[in-house]
Amino acid sequence: MYIVAIAWIYVVLMMALAEALSVHGSVLGAIVTFTMYGVLPLAIVLYIMGTPARRRARRAAEASAATPDGGGHAAGDPVATERKEP
Hints:
mainly alpha, transmembrane helix
């Protein structure tokens, strides 16, 4: 998945460089080209492609948090009991 993202960023970077170094181009046009053709679409695609992994990680975290002591019983009282004076 990441090899395609790296290749796409490379292609868009070359497009932006061609825009910046062209006689009729500008640096602002190169920045817009890199942002609109490269960064934004790639961020959206990587976010969508990463959804199943995030979902699995969230379910695993919820499953491990459901039984913190592994016994399935409620945890003991975290406050120490009060002792009587002798």
